Queue: 3 jobs
Job 1
Amino acid sequence: MRREQRGVGWWRPGLLWLVAIVLPTPLWAGSEVLPSPVQQRLDNGLRVVFQFDPASPIVAVCAFVHTSAAQETWNATGVRQLLQLMGEQARPPAGEGESQLPPVALLHMAVSRDYVETILRCLPEDFPDALRRLRWALFDPDLSQEPFRYAQQRLEQEVMARQTSPVALAQDVLVTRLYPQWPGSWPLIGVGTATGVDLSYARDFHRKHYLSDATVLAICGGLPWETVGPEVARTFGVGNVPRGTPPALAAPVAGAEPNTEPLVLKLTGSEVSAVALGGRAPALEHPDYAAAAVMTALLGAGRGSRLYQRLREEQNVSYTIQADLAPSQVCPYVFCLATCSADKLDAVRTTMLAETARLCTQPASAEEVIRARRMVAGQFLLQQQDAVSLAHFLGLFVLFGRDRGMDHWRSFAERLNEVQPEQVQAMARQVLTSPAVVAVRGGASS
């Protein structure tokens, strides 16, 4: 699994979010079996999940704050991105001394539809200082005018960059077609009016949402829990992190039906064109999520997928093909995307629609389903070598599943292996019978 976009404005999964969600038990690091993860809830409600990996040379921390784009208002979309950008500039608050982020530590801020995430990597000996820097970035950033203006400029640059990418534009607009009534769906997670957000609104949003009860810390690396646990409690415990009742999280978006009218956009200055096709999907904790994962892999993940076979092997009309299942709680969706030259755009779109329809009407073979299941599970095995990825997905399960998060984590591999061809076809009929389709036609600048 690769992450295609790592800018602070967007956390975008690349080839299959789902491949990193299959977490078989036990975990492996090289040839070593890892111990079971440790879970703890601090007295202030902050949740911690920890995985010890003695072979890891670093410690990775992924801090999630459970605040979604659906909690933004129509005239203030993008406030979460601005706050994360301001967190990147965080300096020690008064009374904290002059200790800075250790030079060997790396800090990265990211935003998804359902949460904001701060990712930190450091050497084990720098873990205490790195944790303090993480706390400042999350809960005590400089919310004054100068860093706010800088964040607005950064975000505006990111928005402009996405608008010139046919892949990003096709994906972003596809979500607006699938969830037209959701304010955070344009473009994708809400940046349309970011430069017009008022600083006082940003401060108020931070005060209401960045709370211990809404936070999950996921940690993986070469320090034992006997060292990590007390350090986390000292840094993020009672009195060090704001506490309160977070605003209610939005339920999965309902209401307006998806807009399935085909849409073609023109993007001058791009030599590449793109077609995105997708539909609303079940959320991560849904019983049918495993079937959706297998369906997505079968359709567009890897050389054995149907779209790869048709678009690359048989017709040779596409550059790249990817499939993605986004385990959002407010706007879960599945999509496939292919890039091509402008003169091949119509052929690519026709083939994608034909293969999607075939999956809905003709059951997949047992061999295809087995290949797709292995694709999902096999990709994750590669991710288990990466402390950052493991921390990210452990935290994601705890964030979405709350008290049952680890139950979902432990049972998903078993549920995946039970998926049968008829379940894949049923999921395709549910999700892709009338897909939304967005094509972006590249062309020379006038």
Job 2
Amino acid sequence: MISMLLLLQAPSVFDAGKVSFSVHAHGWEHNYKIMTYSLMPNESFEMTFHHVPDKSKISVRHPDGTLESLSGHRWVWPGSGTAGVHPFAVLLDHQQMVINLIVMVPLKIDSKGTMQGYRIGKYPDIPLKGLGIYKPPRGLIRVDPEMLVLPLSPHFTLGQFMCKQAGDYPKFLLVRTGLLIKLEYLLELVNHKGFATDTFYVMSGFRTPYYNDAIGNVRYSRHQWGGAADIFIDSNPKDGVMDDLNRDGVIDVRDAAVLYRLFDDESFKDGYKPMIGGLGQYKKTSSHGPFVHVDVRGFRARWGH
């Protein structure tokens, strides 16, 4: 199953990984060749396809065949009680879109702060400013080693977002669809601006509350809800640190500022509005190089620049 999805990888010349039609589901519309959504057990999933030519027909395939076709290019999957990846192949005029539906495991943290032996910690009891996005997640994605190479979108894999804390498998993770769409959007943007790279280096993706507290981060960090990523361009050379984006011969906060300004300028465009969120700029320290933080919190926030 996962090996089939690995066929969708970016070539050496940047390709945004898009098809000519789009899908609207879970509050997001996109036209990427592959995208991932997380669901609770037995939660149904409805998808509506747009920009379908009048004489063309959408075909949606799933291994167990449990799909219902509705009017207006709408399809519904009734859900599954089996945790794990459930991929769909959407076909239209020799084009293919893969939709990964990942059924999560309900969040059940024991008295030791663990879930199936993996240390999670404790989510805040009171949501920040009463906002629903800061309530504890209903579930988490159970991750076994073979899932690390799973493509979540055209240019990002599941392993890029894993929490950095030590521990045996199974581990747990959360990655929001909106974050994947935003990262793909920004990746296409930097390539268009002349910074050639086939992905961002994700220095920090998901964090458990335990790990977030251990590194001294803020209590309501969006990383804990799978909606944030600390990223930089690491392409020339690939050495685990930010590239010299401003070409001054020094790797420092001014390179992070290149990305910050590029992303901030883009945030005022109409097409960016669904992805509105936080943007932060960070200088290098003894433990890491410069980077920028991006998230999809749903409202504008800026810091560090």
Job 3
Amino acid sequence: MKVGSINFLTTRNTTMIVGTIEEKLDQLSIEVKSLNINLNNEIVHKRECVFFLLN
């Protein structure tokens, strides 16, 4: 059951964090996916964290 997500989008000068936590939970497992892109000599790093209920 997906309960929330947080997205990070970072460039050399900017960090954007978008996220939702739908419930307050005592136990979570975290799935992390990373992607590095070199776009016009500027590195863009995106990390996606998805939270799941440990049940």
